[in-house]
Amino acid sequence: MSPPEPPTRILILGSGILGSALAAHLSDFHDHYPIPGFTVQVLSPPSTHEPSIAHKSSTSLAPGLIGQLNALPPLTTLAKTSVQEYLTLPPGCFSQVGGLEIANTPEGIATLEQRLEQALAVGLEARLLDSEEVAGLAPQFHQPDKGAKGLYFPTDGVAEPERIVDAYQASARARDVEFIEATALGIKHLNGVVVGVRTTTGIIGADKVIVASGIWTPKIVEDLIHLPVIPVAHPYIHGPARPARAKETPFVRWPEKSVYARDHGACEGFGTYDHKPLPVEAGESAEKGWDSSFDSAAEKALSSFPEETRKQIQGEGSRRMNGVFAVTPDGLPIAGPVRGVEGLWVAAAVWITHAAGVAELVTGMVLGREDGGEEEVELRKALDPVRFEGREEEELKKESGGRYNDIYNLEE
Ligand SMILES: Cc1cc2nc3c(=O)[nH]c(=O)nc-3n(C[C@H](O)[C@H](O)[C@H](O)COP(=O)(O)OP(=O)(O)OC[C@H]3O[C@@H](n4cnc5c(N)ncnc54)[C@H](O)[C@@H]3O)c2cc1C
User: Fold this and answer.
1) Mutate which of 69, 352, 400 to test ligand 1's pocket (most atoms within 8 Å of Cβ)?
2) Nearest to 345 by CA among 386, 389, 404, 313
3) How confident is the model over 232-251, as pLDDT tens digits?
4) Per-residue pLDDT at 34 exceeds 50
5) Structural domain boundaries in the chain
6) Architecture of domain 8-58+162-228+330-395 in CATH?
7) pLDDT of residue 401
């Protein structure tokens, strides 16, 4: 009898929402793996208790709005899959509070009407509401105004991204996934085949590597592929604490103003895209210091709220944050194999909104499963890193910057 095959070692780089979702998905398929077996490990930099050098992931900073309808069809598909999965996670990970888009101009309302049609066409529940109804659902963010309308998506909601990470990691640990503290420095390969990862604690051997390191992904694979994953800075503000409401209200977006807000339970929060895109270096942390170029956009965003809310949010105890996430030239995540290096995949520029869907897709690729039909084939094609091959780096960077101001792809 021949000796048993050694297990296939899968190593995931990154333990944000994507790396954690991948760990849970890959370990879930343990029993179905077509070859003798595999092990899953997750690598991420050691946590530090020194606040001045804290390494924060994008996931830890995201307010977690989950709006499923996107003018880019792959994103709607991935968001719908993700919402279905988040609904199965423990309470507190995802709340299906609904989402509202508010418009005040005839053009803005026409866009809402178009989006209503798009939503219904892809099987997403949506209703156009008059201003009174909108104010009834989210009174702190809207006061009745005859000229306004709202598009309501009852199945959208808000995530608590760190709780989702905890839930995925608990599930993965229960299935023997090992979490290792070290920083990846590069991929080690031999004759075009992955053999491991160079890390700050030495080489870790692996047969399959998935780089899911968010804004840090391009650097780890820079000698193998150029990835147009551009880190951009984004302002978000938490208002001071206030008494919690009996029921959390839907999140709200004002697409014409590039402003959004959510009820965090203990406070309100809002963000704005209405400023010049600010590309930054990934650096040590996804949290940067506040940039004064955000001041006027934040001030302007406040004018979207009723006066009482505006005053409350501006009160003592509000916190301004500059968080970094990634944009790409076409507004889609990058997820798929790195050509020419067998056993290497990348998955980056993935929102909380799409993370479970992308994890499912990449799991299928890594395990060599092809059972998702036409839709899966289309998704793989749309997200394939190869799509940027041969394009000029500067041009890609410029296109990515343009995506920031149309983050919901409303102008497709
Ligand atoms: C202010 C802000 C608001 C946002 N709002 C929303 C929102 O409302 N809705 C939404 O869907 N999304 C939102 N996003 C986007 C979303 O947070 C990110 O796209 C998502 O969290 C990315 O997840 P990730 O796991 O790919 O990356 P990250 O969460 O950044 O995780 C990367 C992981 O890689 C690890 N890592 C880094 N370097 C290395 C290395 N060298 N070796 C090994 N591991 C490494 C990190 O430690 C971390 O564990 C927002 C982001 C920000 C910053």
Assistant:
1) 352
2) 386
3) 999 999 999 999 999 999 99
4) no
5) 8-58+162-228+330-395, 96-159+230-327
6) 3-Layer(bba) Sandwich (3.50)
7) 83
Q: How far does residue 350's CA lie from ligand 1's centre (Å)?
A: 8
Which residue has 């005040």 as its token pair? 104
> Distance between CA atoms of 103 and 110, rounded to whole angstroms?
9
Question: Ramachandran region of residue 59, left (φ > 0), alpha (ψ -120 to 50) or beta?
Answer: alpha
Q: Give the whole-angstrom CA distance, residue 371 versus residue 205.
A: 29
CATH number of this structure's domain 96-159+230-327, picked from the four choices 3.30.9.10, 3.40.920.10, 3.40.1360.10, 3.90.350.10: 3.30.9.10
Q: Pocket residues for ligand 1 (CB within 6 Å)? A: 13-19, 43-45, 55, 57-59, 61-66, 183-184, 212-216, 220, 234, 236, 286, 323-325, 348, 350-353
ipTM above 0.95, yes or no: yes
Please check whether residue 111 is in contact with residue 95, taking contact to mean a CB–CB distance below 8 angstroms.
Answer: no
